[in-house]
Write a structure and sequence with these properties.
heterodimer; A: 214 residues; 67% helix; B: 5 strands; elongated
Chain lengths: 214, 167
């Protein structure tokens, strides 16, 4: 249990969104509800893991001068393939996320990890890095979407992306006390700022503790 | 020189592989995506063309820009997904025209105009006034919410124009 907790904490701290401030555009835009967050998160996990593996596998034969174009081709191919698969098999996600799926191509997390990690490390390590970063990104999306959805609608629900059937739906706040502004752009920025500040506070407190121990 | 050729060939091979993979995925998914597109409007289409089950999305030319999609109900007629500007928001509807040029159905899917006034274009009274008329004649409708109902009429005219090019 403790190791799971530690893993979670490390994900939170090394988090691409709240730690490195990468990939924020999509984070702000799509975290209106839990469904969107999970749909986007899982797409990114899959794309990031595969792109890391492919880029790591061809890192020795990729000429240094054209590595960025090669990475872009690999990432764009994966994103397009995933987009087509989502459109075919999970039209609800396609409807909800729309343009943000093709925009994963320019999500800096993916190119960032390709350049910073996969191009220098082995296939297995790169796969794990992609998975970790993807899960951390997904966790940030889920955290953002939970705050926003609960405050804006008072309801948390999740439905099966393939059939659109509801899995669960819990009403937490009666509808007269909800704050609809949280589903809009202002709510996205507020939530992001508050969560980022909270995580910074935790990090600072831990650093102080470490210094104090020395 | 050798370096340049090496770079060019490498990027060309990577791109060709990528293109091949995408071609394969596209071939795999495009029939399913077509079906999904139809599935979203199939309920409306079936309400218009009762008894038809074979719908195809077709390509068309529309000078007015109001017609978004066109569907063929094989053997029965055509349906058009139309979006026009209403009083304060767009109005989206599907109009079905059978092969003789008669309006066989009107399904208003989105209207956000004044409740009780413009919103009447989605009610049976308005719809029944339109269904059954020939598209080549001028359409008669109830008066009242002039802007919303005129917008729908304009949309039907656009659909009728596209219908004319299809026949």
């Amino acid at each position: 249990m403790k190791s799971v907790l530690n893993y979670g904490m490390s994900l939170l701290k090394e988090n691409p969104v709240f730690g490195l401030y990468l990939g924020i555009c999509s984070t702000l835009a799509i975290t209106i509800n839990l469904n969107n967050a999970l749909g986007m998160g899982i797409s990114v996990i899959i794309i990031l893991t595969i792109s890391n593996v492919v880029i790591s596998a061809i890192r020795k034969i990729t000429p240094d001068e054209i590595r960025i174009p090669v990475y872009i081709v690999v990432i764009a191919t994966l994103v397009k393939a995933i987009e087509l698969l989502i459109r075919a098999y999970a039209p609800a996600i396609d409807q909800a996320l729309g343009i943000f799926i093709p925009l994963i191509v320019v999500n800096c997390i993916i190119l960032g990890r390709a350049e910073a990690f996969a191009s220098k490390n082995g296939v297995v390590a790169s796969a794990l890095d992609g998975l970790n970063m993807g899960v951390a990104y997904t966790l940030s999306l889920v955290a953002m979407s939970l705050v926003r959805q609960i405050l804006a609608t008072g309801i948390v629900d999740l439905s099966n992306p393939f059939t659109n059937a509801e899995i669960f739906s819990i009403t937490l706040i009666p509808s007269q006390y909800t704050i609809p502004i949280f589903s809009g752009a202002i709510g996205a920025f507020l939530t992001f700022a508050l969560l980022a500040a909270g995580i910074s506070a935790i990090k600072n407190a831990e650093e102080k503790k470490l210094k104090g121990a020395k | 020189m050798k370096k340049i050729i090496h770079l060019t060939v490498f990027l060309a091979i990577v791109s060709a592989l990528a293109g091949g993979i995408l071609g394969y995925v596209n071939a795999l998914t495009s029939p399913i995506i077509e079906e999904q597109k139809i599935a979203a409007v199939k309920a409306s289409l079936q309400a218009i063309f009762t008894g038809s089950d074979d719908f195809k999305e077709i390509s068309f030319e529309d000078a007015s820009g109001n017609v978004i999609n066109a569907y063929e109900a094989v053997g029965a007629g055509y349906a058009f997904n139309v979006e026009v500007q209403g009083y304060k928001d767009v109005i989206r509807f599907i109009v079905g025209i059978d092969n003789t040029g008669k309006i066989v159905g009107l399904e208003v899917n989105y209207v956000n105009d004044t409740p009780g006034l413009g919103s009447k274009v989605a009610e049976p009274e308005f719809i029944n006034g339109i269904v059954g008329q020939q598209v080549d004649a001028s359409l008669d409708v109830i008066s009242g919410s002039t802007i919303s109902s005129n917008a729908v009429l304009k949309g039907i005219d656009s659909a009728a124009a596209v219908f004319g090019t299809l026949k």
